[in-house]
Amino acid sequence: MSTLTNNRLQALSDNVWLHFFQMGHFSSTGVRPTVLVRGEGSRVWDQDGHEYIDGLSGLFTVNVGYGRREIIEAISAQLSEIAYVSPFSFPSLPQIDLSARLAALSPTGPRSRVFLTTGGSDAVETALKLAKAYQRRRGFADRTKIIARRISYHGTSMGALSVNGVTSIRNGFGPLVPGARHVPLPYRYRCDYCALHSGCRGVCADEVERLIEFEGPETIAAIIMEPVQNSGGAIVSPPGYLQRIRQICDHYGIVMIVDEVICGFGRVGDWFGSTAMAVHPDIITCAKGITSGYAPLGAAIVRDTIADMFVSENDADKFMHGITFGGHVASCAAALANLDIIEREHLLERSREMGTYLMRELEAAIGQHPNVGDVRGMGMFMAIELVRDRTTRESIAEERLMSWLSEQLKQRGLICRADDRLEPVIQLAPPLILTREEADRCVTIIAEAVHALGRKLNSTPTVIALNPPVEAPTAVAAD
User: Fold this and answer.
1) pLDDT tens digits for range 195-213
2) Rounded Cα–Cα distance for residues 360 and 376 (Å)
């Protein structure tokens, strides 16, 4: 077992800079970090030998689970052949094979072109640049605006950050890339449009068209949306919503980008959220589960009618965009092995079946708890929205609630996310190989934590205080 020596603790305090994390926590007296050193299946172990179910798949990433020798050996074999091929100059064999395979799986069509990147932000950045360049190539130089949803997360590079709907992440980095516009999200549990109706009336999709008309269709390059929005807690697009967005894009000549960085590769029970919801985007952005986290990789999968605008004998027609490590040979080899596992072990079906089971068991265990407002999700991607009062849906506004709740879950052996970028939620997205026994354990731990929350809210109605620190607060990552 790897150990956390005094020298490593000092280096952590002095030199490490985690993402979306306040490193000052590690300078606090008595705070001991949790360093994950080993993983197998759906479980991980820290430096002290404590075992956890990884209820977040790392970061919605390790879809096929930890310890997959097949992927590790594919990476090693590729590195033994050739360690790097410049994507600026030469194709590589794994790049060719992976591109063909992704095109065959993607709802963008079998003649799609695949622009490989290093991750999700790069994939979104690529899609945004491509949409603007495509509109300009069509003769619409004024089509520069991008429509996204409020509270949506699409990455942190400057273009992706600009379309982000999470203002707390955008603020402080201006001026951003101009032209981002944001529309309401289809948030059924707290929908202002449908609150008094029994079902979705589609008004949130109508708002997209109203914004286009207000801004002027001739100024809009693209719309970007997730099938199931992560930020806010597994908010599932209602039936017909994405089809309506598709119709709007077709009517006004707008590029439809579907962000599948989290939803792709079995997370919501199909290869993509788009395929699960029977919609055909112009561009799909993906990452995370494409390699199950064994190597960094992302992709923009582009419909041929858009990609063909940049393919000719004329050098001036090429897409002027590139990333040194985009489509790295080792990452492509990892992705191919990962796709083999997903297919061979029928993990798409398993995601649907186990997701249904988890949702049912969560509903049975805590669905009527006075501090649980909503249990929602799709496949192995779900969230429990927490409220002060179930009847009135009053929000919880206690300070530091998420840190306290994360620690409650972790102390019981479950790593998942407690997040409050919209309303407080517990997010659960375990590996697709999660066993029935592990699923039951997740439900038990979440129920215990929710009951602990209820007792805490009743005893301290205004401020939730952290327990005396034993370990560092769990980071609330932005993805």
Assistant:
1) 656 677 778 899 999 999 9
2) 10
What CA–CA distances, in Å, run from 231 to 95, 235, 380, 424, 479? Answer: 31, 8, 16, 11, 7
Q: Tell me the CA distances in angstroms from 109 to 105, 252, 286, one per residue in order.
A: 8, 22, 15
Q: Is the peptide bond before 175 cis (omega within 30 degrees of 0)?
A: yes
CA angle 128, 279, 416 (to 5 degrees): 75
CA distance linking residue 211 with residue 56, whole number of Å = 35
By C-alpha distance, which of 76, 117, 77, 72 is closest to 95?
117
End-to-end Cα, the chain, rounded Å: 30
Helix ranges (DSSP H) in 113-225? 120-137, 158-163, 167-170, 203-215
**Whether the predicted pLDDT of 477 surpasses 60:** no
**Longest Cα pair distance anywhere in the chain, in angstroms?**
72
**Pick from 293, 295, 284, 300: nearest CA to 116:** 300
Could you tell me what percent of the chain has a pLDDT over 90?
Answer: 81
Write down the pLDDT at residue 401. Answer: 86
β-strands 382-386, 51-54 pairing:
unpaired
CB of 257 closer than 8 Å to CB of 224: yes
Contact criterion met (CB below 8 Å) for 340 and 360: no
Query: What is the reported pLDDT for 472?
Result: 44
**Contact (Cβ atoms closer than 8 angstroms) between residue 160 and residue 124:** yes
The two structure tokens encoding residue 145: 């605006």
What digits encode the pLDDT tens for the residues 128-175?
Answer: 999 999 999 999 999 999 999 999 999 999 999 999 999 999 999 999
Instruction: For residues 66-71, give the mean pLDDT.
Output: 98
Whether residue 465 is predicted with pLDDT greater than 50 in this model: the reply is: no
Average pLDDT, the chain: 92
Calculate the CA 81 to chain-centre distance.
33
The Cα-based distances of 238 to 36, 186, 353, 421 in angstroms read: 37, 7, 20, 21
Helices 241-252 & 203-215 angle (0-180, nearest 10): 20
Q: How many separate helices (H) and strands (E) can be counted in the chain?
A: 15, 17
Using alpha carbons, select from 337, 293, 335 the residue that is nearest to residue 70.
337
CA distance 257 to 153: 14
